[in-house]
Amino acid sequence: MSQAVLNDAVRVVPQSGSKPPMIDLVDDIEGIRAQLSTSRRVRPARCSSTQFRFPVDVAYELSPLAVWTHQSNPILVQDDGGFVCAELMHHESASLSAGQYTIDITSLGLKVYLYVEGEVEISHTDDRGRIIDCRGAETVQLGLRSFHEVPAATVTTTDQPRDVMRALSCLGSALKTTSCERSFPTLRGHPPLFERGERFQVPGDLERTTETASLRIEVPPTLEMIYPVAPLAYYLNAVVVPGDTPCLVAGDSTIPLDRGDGVEQGGAQLLKHVFTLDCIARTEGFYPITLGERTALEQRHSDSIAIDFATLYERSLAEQVQTYLSIPFDRVEDIVPRWPLTADVRPVGNYLPYLPFVVASLGTIRCLPMSCPWSPPSDAPEIEAFYRAGQEAARNDGADNGTGTSSVSGPPTRSSENGFDSAMSSVIHNPPTADSIAHLWLADGYPMQGTKPTLDAFERRFDPITATEYEVVVISNDAQMEAESDVAELYGQHERMDFDVTIREQLSRANLRELFTEEYDLVHYVGHVDADGLQCADGWLDVRTLDAVNTRIFVLNGCRSYEQGEALVERGAVSGLCTLANVGNTPATQIGRTVARLLNGGFSLSGVLDIISEDFLTGQQYMIVGDPSRAVVQRHDATSILAEITPASDNDELRVDIHGYPTIRSPVGMLYAPAIDEETFYLNSGHMTTVTASRSEIKEYLHHDRFPVRIAGSFAWSDAVSLDSIE
C-alpha cells in the first residue's frame, strides 16, 4: 500500500463541539476509530516522523497539552537512548523530569505514540482512564501506525514439489526482523501470496537460498512432507530443500523433525518451542516487561534450565534456535500459548494458494492421507448419530442437552423438513481433534465444529473497512422464533462504539435479496432454512440465485444452513456462522443470544465457535464458512477474554482463570495485562493466568468490562454475575 494512501487512511480528526474536547484516531484500512480527550481544542498539523523511535504512518504536531484515554491502557515510556524509564499498568503513575520521551499508548486498535520534549506527568482518572499531561513540554508530536498488513508480492509456482519448496522458501521475506521480536505479530508481516502457474516465477529477491538463509529445512520432495513445514519456514526465515530425512539445520546442529509422531507433529512442536522462548527472550530488548510465562518457566525449572536470556538476545537466529532446542520441550510445553489455528489439508495443488493465509496466523498444518482424504468410513455412524441424537432431546422442549432434530412429537425446530438425510453423512466429516482455537478444513465436504474457508474470503481481509458506526440488521422471519429478535438489543451494548441496529420482520424474498446486496457489517438471520433456501414471508430465497453479496459477516441461525452460508461467502461475504444439522428453537435461541454478545464484545468467529461448542451441546452443530479470524467489532484493547470463577481453599477468596482469544487485530504473540493482576503481562492466547483474590476484588474486576464468565457450572456475563452462587 502506498504511503499516499496511508496518509489519507490513517489520520487524526478533531471532534467539533465535543465536551471535553476530543480527537479521533482513525484507521480506515482496519475500520478503527479510537478517541483521546484533550485539555483544550487542537488543530493537529502534519509533521516529519523522524523523531519517533518506531515506524509510524503519519505524524502530527500538537501544541503542549494534556491528553487522556477512556480506559486503563498500559503505557511504556522510553527515553532518547531507548531506556525504558516507565512501564505503567492500570492504576500506576509516573512523573518524568525534562527530557526526550517516546510514549507508547497501547490497546487503542492502532499503534499510537507521543513524542515529547519536556516534562511529563502520567496518572489515572477516577473512571479507569489515563492522563498524560504534557502541558509543561516544549514539543508534543503524535504518531500513528496502522496494523494493516498486505502481501508485498505474489509467487507463481507449479504443483511440482521442488517448485513448491522454492515457494515456501519465499515466505520468510515478509519478516521485518529476524530477531526474537518477530514473535510480535506487527513485526512479522503477511507472507507473499501463492498463485499456481505453468512455471516458477518470483519477483525480486524474495527467495531464500542455501547461500542467503542461516537455517535450512530438509524434507523428502512430496507435498505430504512439504506442506506441514510451511509455518516453520516462514517463522524461521528458512530455505526448504529436498532431503532424505526431515530435519532442521541450524549452524552446526541438525534437529530431527520426525520425532516419532511424523513431520506434522515434530514441525508443529518445534515452531511452538522456538516461538515461546522468543517471547521470553524479547523481554531483554525494547520491551523489558514482566512476562508471566518467563516467571513460570524460571520458577518451575530453575534447577534444569540455565539460559542467560540477556546474552542470548544478542545472538544470531541460528544460535538462538540451537540454544532453545537444547531445552527439552516438556520443560516449555506448559507455558506454550494455546495455538490459534490448525489446518487439515489435502496435500494437492488446489490448496497451495491457501498456505500463506494459514502461515500468516502461525497455524500448524496436518495433511489428510491421500488414500482417505477426508474422514475414515468408521465416522459414518458417528456422523449419523450427530444428526439423530437430538430427536430424544427435542422431546424435552429443546433443552440444550443434545441436538434439536425435528420430530413429529417433539417441539419445533428451525427446519421445515423432518428426519435425517443419510446422504448428508457423505459430505459432513469429523476431523481429527485439534487443541487450537480455530480449525480449518481444506478438503471436500464440511467439518464438524470447524471452518470451511474460501480463497476469496481470505483475500477480502485486505479490503479497507470504513471507520464509521457498525451497521447490524437482525432478520426475524418466523413468529415462533421472535424470542431471538431481542439480540438486536445485545448488539448495541458497547459504551465505546457506535452501532446502528435494525430489526426487519417477515421480509419478502425481494426484500431479503436486496438486503444482502447492502453493506451491513453483520446480518443475523432468525428463521427456517431448508433445501429451498431461507424462509421469507412469501416463500423461500435460495441465496445461490444471488449475483453478489455485500454483507460482511452473517449468522444463519436456522437448521442445516451451511450450504446457504457457503453460497453467501462465494458471492462476496467474508464469513459467517452456520449449522450442520437441525436445531431446536430453545437451544438455538440461547446460542443466538450468546453469539450476539460475543460478537458485540469483539470475539472473532473462531472464538465464538470455540466457546459455544464448549458451553452448549447444541453448539457442536455449528460451523464457520469463510475467514474464521474475522470479527464484527474491532476492540481497541484487541484481545477478548473469558474468565472462569471457582472456589478457593479460603472461603473468603475465589479463583479466577483468565483465557485470551486472539483476533486478526491481535494475533498470537501480543500481550495482555489483566486488570486484576496489575504487575504482569501475558501472551494473549489460551489460559493466561490464575488469580486468587477476595470476593470484593473479583467483583470490582468483573465490572471493569463486559466479558463472558463460566461460574458454578453456568455460562454468564461479567456485568450480571452473582458471586453468591459460589460457596
TrEMBL record:
The lineage of its organism: Archaea, Methanobacteriati, Methanobacteriota, Stenosarchaea group, Halobacteria. Residues 402-427 have a biased composition (Polar residues). It comes from Halocatena pleomorpha. Residues 394-427 are annotated as: Disordered. This is CHAT domain-containing protein. InterPro entries: Caspase-like_dom_sf. It comes from the Archaea.
